[in-house]
Amino acid sequence: MERIYSIDYIKFFAIFAVVVIHVFPLDGFAGYFIIDNVARFAVPFFFAASGYFFAQKMKHEDAPFLYFKSYCLKLIKLYLVWLIFYTCYDVVLILLDEVHIAEKLKAYFEQFTLLNLLYYGKGTSGYQLWFLTALIWSTIAVYVFFRFKQITLLFLISFCLNLIGLLGQAYTMFIKFPINSTRDAMFFGLFYTTLGVFFASNSRLSGLNKVSGRTFLGLALIGAVVQPMEGYILDKVLSGSHGEYFFSTILLTAFLFLFALNHKKLGKGLYVTKVGANALGIYIIHVFLLDVFNKFIKFVHLDHLSENFIWNLCYTLFIFTFSYFTYDYLQKIKRNVKQ
């Protein structure tokens, strides 16, 4: 299978955008609103990339089920390992608090419902783990429809579900949605994963190769401008929900992905492309490191610096870099243990 460097190249900027969202304070400065909304393409792009590569492998596998099984088991193992890690971390923090330990532990583990653990990926301080559970369930659905050659049908179904799910995110002013969170597998992850699969498996999209990469990039940049505008209207004018996903997110993600497919060699040989290939590792571990350093900053009474733009920018670069090298070091330890 041909290596697509451009996807890893864009994943570098996507994972950096995720760290920016988590580091910068919500109301730290006026420009954050724009940065926060533009950065919303990141997680949808991760889903699309996962779906694309999964479909590409499935097309060339002699035993598709065995690949599907190994791929899902890999994701499940990854989720369980980090679920246990964040659980242990949270329990240690509760024990160190030394105040009302029993009550806090009871309240903490009450969140460990089957729905939270197996579907929403919630319950621990590792709130970003929802991506893994959403990807697992989305991949299972994709496999079923892929085997029956009904990806186009799944794409239409998931698109409708995503539009419905948006009512529970940014468009809450129009309707009171009965589900508390629609940032999950069914309403969110499934569509973007299927979008990647659709790009990989639909031969009718071959005509898009005639469209120049500059056109797709231009459309993506327009989407990057429209997305914060849509976010501003929904949040400030119509009093909707801040920090969510929008209809323009679909267009931005699709055009950006098509641009990547049009320039597959983009980023080849660059260090940022190598970092982008490890985006999932950075995504998983950066929340832990951010929490540790936030607690240290608060302990030394420097938390007032969060209102400073330069500090937040440098802090973002630090968390991003430290997360990459920490995860890379953990992978080296893992390889040594296996050997």
UniProtKB/TrEMBL annotation:
Keywords: Acyltransferase, Cell membrane, Membrane, Transferase, Transmembrane, Transmembrane helix. It is found in: Cell membrane. The chain crosses the membrane at residues 12-32, 38-55, 76-96, 127-146, 153-174, 186-203, 215-233, 245-263, 275-297, 309-330. The keyword Transmembrane helix applies. Pfam families: Acyl_transf_3. InterPro entries: Acyl_transf_3_dom (IPR002656). It is a multi-pass membrane protein. Residues 4-327 form the Acyltransferase domain. Belongs to the acyltransferase 3 family. PANTHER family: O-ACETYLTRANSFERASE WECH (PTHR40074:SF2). This is Acyltransferase.
